[in-house]
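Q: Start with the shorter request: fold the first protein.
A: Done. Sequence, then structure:
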Amino acid sequence: MNDIIRAMEERRSIRKFKADMPKKEDIEQIIEAGLYAANGQAKQAAIIVAVTNKEIRDRLSEDNLRVVGKEPVSDPFYGAPVILIALADKSCTTSVYDASLVMGNMMLAAHSLGLGSIWIHRAKEEFETDEWKKFLKDLGAEGDYEGVGHCAVGYIDGEIPAPQKRKEGRVFWAE
């Protein structure tokens, strides 16, 4: 089996991370993999916001919990020190799909580098708020963006979960 398919089969969502910050070179490689995701009409309309600042990361965590109506008592990012946010340019008809592929590439890249990752939702709701729209603008991200997902990344604290059995009846051949 080739390495890419093996990574696809072995990657798991991680729900416990060490606080240690991954090497910047590894984070950059993960981002680069995201930027190489397939995209509609070669528009490359998805953007990535890399959050390694703990204060900003913790604000995101608190806001993420508020979206689901919970008080900030636990961390929806499971302690991951890096949050890579994929956002979609609303003017592009394929942008949500494109940003979803960015997320997939980043999670596979993290796995290939010995890091764990998990896709956390609610970026859409967060980036509809004035606070996070201003945050994007302050970073220089001009335009109208929809949050698609948070790719929480870090060193795995514990064992990699065992794979779930694949559901039967999900492939239909038209030969």
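Q: Next, the second protein, separately.
A: Sequence, then structure:
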Amino acid sequence: MTLEIFLQNVANAISLGSLYALIAIGYTMVYGIIRLINFAHADLLMVAGYISFYGILIFAMPWWLAFLIAIALTTILGMAMEKLAYRPLRNAPRISALISAIGMSFLLQNLGIVLVGASPKPFPRPEGLVWNIHLGSVSFLSLTVIIPVITLLLLAAVYLVVNKTNTGIAMRAVSRDFETASLMAVDVNKVVVTTFAVGSGLAAVGGIMWSLQYPQIDPLMGVFPGLKCFIAAVMGGIGSVPGAMIGGFILGIGEIMLVAFMPELSGYRDAFAFVVLILILLFKPGGILGDHVVEKV
């Protein structure tokens, strides 16, 4: 492998790892607060992609306005999902909330098929956002730089919110002890809604960047990225925001480098994530930065 090809693969790996990290944080934040794997989180990527698509092509919006509206509407949808599908089951057995999350995921996927059709659609790449960058003999799209920068900025913002604000203190209190936090005047409903809003907003940004990086959208576009980002969250330690970031980067870099150094295994690229998940669950079930906690029954 030449140096140019190696650097190209490194750039692609960091870009993919950034996307995984950004989406994985939504999974880990919701689980950290209410101990729920929100499987519908992955389908919010699809919702944001389609809202952006129709905003640009049908309503002729500037790309930045279409993206902002997509993020806002996806965030509102995430908050509505919490209120309608998860809050009524908060005190129910854990399996009920899990089934509700799976059902919400199938609902969004099938609504997408009914409303917009199952055929993939090409996603527009705005000229002011996507261009070629040449560094010597290495050439790559501007998205390869833009995606990691946006991801790191959003991760820094999430870190500041969680660790430096009153809302973040309330989030950490609820994540430690739901019942005790509610007895100490913490508005648990507000904390949970805020968590869903942040997670859904990150999913929307991730969905838009995923659509730009791989410019084709369809109602099932969130399924495989969602599974891989869930694996990244488990790898880093489900419930840990820094862990989700680390897990996302490890998974993205591992996938790209596997194909780069062993191209004969390119057909097994998706299987790599599931092999990593099995190994993590076998040898470090708590994840890289997760705590070993015994679940209450």
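Q: Describe the second briefly.
A: Residues 3-119+155-283 form one domain. The chain has one domain: 3-119+155-283.
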